[in-house]
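Intended use. Records like the one below are meant for learning the mapping from a protein sequence to its folded structure. Do not use them to infer anything beyond what is encoded.
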Amino acid sequence: MAIKIKTPKQIEGIRKSSQLAAQCLKHLEQFVKPGITTKELDTIASDFMKQHNATSATIGYKGHGVQPFSGHICTSVNDVICHGVPNDYTLKDGDILNIDVTTILDGYFGDTCRMYAVGDVTDEAQALMDATKECLKIGLKECYPGSRFGNIGYVISEFAHKQGYSVVYEFCGHGVGLQFHEDPEVSHIAHKNTGKRMRPGMIFTIEPMINTGKARSKVDESDGWTARTIDGGLSAQYEHTILITENGCEALTDVYGDY
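Structure written out for the chain above:
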């Protein structure tokens, strides 16, 4: 399928939804502390979306033949790579948590995630989060008209491997905006100068998942969603929804001004 080029009206709608998703992550900051459950965070996020006339794209999402996802957000703790289902797990001091939010606002989708340190985390955990955030920044530098999508994965994997980390290859970024998942798939490990060329109006996510141990994942049979590292090592992820502009790119979900 062809990669959709969004119209100015669509871009504005996707931008608003993307900013709301990011604002939801920012709102959750104050609640991510030892003693709260991931299910309680899910309720807080759901209430925030409702207050802003938006809904969650994940609740009831069917995926690939597994049971529908039961959370309004994804909450991935420690060795969980992605798609962690909110439940009765109580956060404790030293945990690292990824929260992934996808909002639907006026029919448009915005997708973003970030890491949270719960209390005092280890140096290993902090270094992993810092490196993963840097991977996203490095990937963004490859986003401009004429660049090829493979360059994103090439620079991310080059950096991560030099730091001694592995890059998850079983999950990837994706087109987004008019639907939850669109073309193209955006791999975080790829060969240089491969893939289709970027054009203004394309919107997609970059969401590197970086592990301290092996790159592979295993999915919990209990829910059919929660993907963990196969060796129990830590995993971290950051994500932005990206718009290719005439001169470069815009991180539509960047409300912190980091990118």
